[in-house]
Request: fold
Amino acid sequence: MLCLATGKAASKELERIDQLFFSYANNSSGLIDPEGIESFCSDLEVDHTDVRILMLAWKMQAEKQGYFTLDEWRRGLRALRADTIVKLKKALPDLDKEVRRPSTFEDFYTYAFQYCLTEEKQKSIDIESICVLLDLVLGSRFGPQVDYLVQYLKTQTDYKVINMDQWKGFYRFCTEISFPDLSNYDPDSAWPWILDNFVDWMRAKQG
Amino acid sequence: MNSSNQKKRNFQIEAFKHKVVVDPKYADKTWKILEHAITEIYNHNASGLSFEELYRNAYNMVLHKFGEKLYSGLVGTMTLHLQEMAKTIEAAQGNLFLEELNRKWNDHNKALQMIRDILMYMDRTFIPSNRKTPVHELGLNLWRDNVIHSSKIQTRLLDTLLELIQKERTGEIINRGLMRNIIKMLMDLGSSVYQEDFEKHFLEVSADFYRAESQDFIECCDCGDYLKKAERRLNEEIERVSLYLDSKSETKITNVVEKEMIASHMLRLVHMDNSGLVNMLIDDKYEDLGRMYNLFRRVPNGLPTIRDVMTSHLRETGKQLVTDAEKLKDPVEFVQCLLNEKDKYDKIINLAFSNDKTFQNALNSSFEYFINLNPRSPEFISLFVDEKLRKGLKGVSEEDVETILDKVMMLFRYLQEKDVFEKYYKQHLAKRLLSGKTVSDDAERSLIVKLKTECGYQFTSKLEGMFTDMKTSQDTMQGFYAAYAAELGDSPTLVVQVLTTGSWPTQPSITCNLPAEMSALCEKFRSYYLGTHTGRRLSWQTNMGTADLKAIFGKGQKHELNVSTYQMCVLMLFNSADRLSYKEIEQATEIPSSDLRRCLQSLACVKGKNVLRKEPMSKDIGEEDAFFVNDKFTSKFYKVKIGTVVAQKESEPEKQETRQRVEEDRKPQIEAAIVRIMKSRRVLDHNNIIAEVTKQLQSRFLANPGEIKKRIESLIERDFLERDSSDRRLYRYLA
Reply:
């Protein structure tokens, strides 16, 4: 349903959005901090580890994990045309659909990695967190791949952290490679080395 | 004369009319004369004939348009005569057949020549304009048709010729001159006659003959003998052709011999038990090998067959050599075996395979294959060099030294992991320099020059740095003693080598407690050195030094002990104590425990060098052991060498460590190569980058594609490179 907000209605909406923001924000920092997010999530009746929160953050283009700035909040809620918790809740299924569209998903996937880089010069994420993230963003669509990949990541010793290039490689792997036969995996292609090893490990398992 | 009746006429010269012109019987008469003459010629009665008269007769016939009669008459009469000759030939018995044929052929040729002379006018006018066969050629054709192809002669002729050749092949002497004439006759009759009536059958029969003979030989001869026989037969056939066959037959008959005697049995010969190629190689049978080479090069796939068998044999023996546990116990022996093997095959290729380049290449690729099967080859080659430079080259002439070093370089070139060799070479060179144990400085430098030529400046710059340090240290010592001459009169003599870190193999810097006399002296040196060189840091490498101690034992025996620094520290303790426990020694010297154990073992547990006594007398060093000076120590030498700073084959853990260091060193080299390539190409796909990097690093080591991939990913992470957004196989250089 397309609603063209008139000038007056638009500014009313923005007001409500801002109000909603300040209801969760920390007064001294002017940001919604982890505590605020927790109460926001409980109002939304969505667990803060749910992927839909991540999607929300993506919609907001939130920079720092656990925090929302006013600009980010505005950006996200305006795009979703939601100025109340109720409307926000209703908007979530559509958001899910939007994110899962192939054209947008890759962007969301990349965002998910960046969002988890908490330190300033950080470029990689530890294996444990990667496994959680993989399951969160790819688990529903590529269940078997994610299961095996997670198992492999936890047992291998070559890498203690995963970088963006490898992260992107995982998604590409899921969308391009036939699973579990792996018949179209070409080791001479430029797959990240960790995936070459994953494929060897899979093949050894399959005997 | 009635002038009124005279008509006006043109002036005409009328042709001179011979009175015989219109007489038809004239032609017959003339022909009869000629026919008779021909008969006389064939009957060897030509002397009574007049050439001019006969010529004129023939001339007239042609002139008066009787050329056809003359020609057909010639054909007819010659045919009759030839048929008669054929009968005579047919009647000849046994051996006389060929002789008769030859004789009659000569007769016919003489007759033909005379006949042609007589009929020359016809030959030049009537025959060409009427497209008839010229007289000489006609004569040959008639001979062919009436004699050679006569039913009673054709087969008999062929059989006779083949029989004679067969006889000659079985060792009998035949009349070669006669053969030559007969064969020449066939050649003169035209190449198709020679080929159809003789050569074709000759080749077939020869093929059968050689097929059978080769089958017999191969059952009873060994390879060398068989090849001798094949060579002999080949030469025989070549000689046969030169003596009495058409030279064009040479290639054809040699092809037959080559096919039947060599090509058909090639594999069986090469693989023959006890006498085949491999046995010849093992026993250095140069003559047999040379013969095999010369024969096999004549047949398709001959040389590749030899080369392949040689290659697989070489690879097999090489593989056994490098994995032979016995040989691996002695690295110098191991390398010497490799050199011997190379010499052996160089000689074979030189003497027997006429320095054939493809064989040299096969030799090189085989060596490269098996030398690299053993990952310790680089280390062992360095140990070989070490032994030579420490003592092996003592007393050897300069020329011979160069030869040996060149041979070492040749082995070096086969190594894939040249960087591993470099590491060991550096370690061993360091030990040689520090122990002062090099036979010839010139030889050392010569080898470094060779390595530089082969690998470039970077390979050897650090090595040269080591030599410089040694020289500089000498100068420093001179300066030190000059400056402190007065003070140092009574002190022990100190010799310091100052090593620049980076040029020398990396060593962990371990210090221990030096005896008081030494530490004072060392401090003096340190302040002297730092006085003249500001901004530097010195650390004593106590694990690398040596010491000479003068010792007097219980019964007054005097000896000079040549020991390591650690051993010196331990022994000096006994100047102020008779008994020391392991713990006390450890505490006093602060030598790391594994080194201390080795040190004590070398002082107390080795026969002939046991200057210390240990309780209990076990071979191992226990924490509770006690040590005493061995008052009963004896040695027939005044100078006793106990320290070991000589280069040795590494132990397993040392080997692992070196290997790890090599792998670590390779990472930056791979990255540098990747960056270099990407900087110039800007964008490159995965497979090409792997290929380029491998190629660039080839002269140092064989880069592992997996390792290259890891380095690329590391460079991506550090934002040197990125992947192309649409084609994940492409990499892009980020400025």
Notes: The CA atoms of residues 116 and 122 of chain A lie 10 Å apart. Chain A has a mean pLDDT of 89. Residues 7-24 of chain A form the longest helix (18 residues). Chain A touches chain B at residues 123-124, 163-166, 172, 188-190, 192-193, 196 (CB under 8 Å).
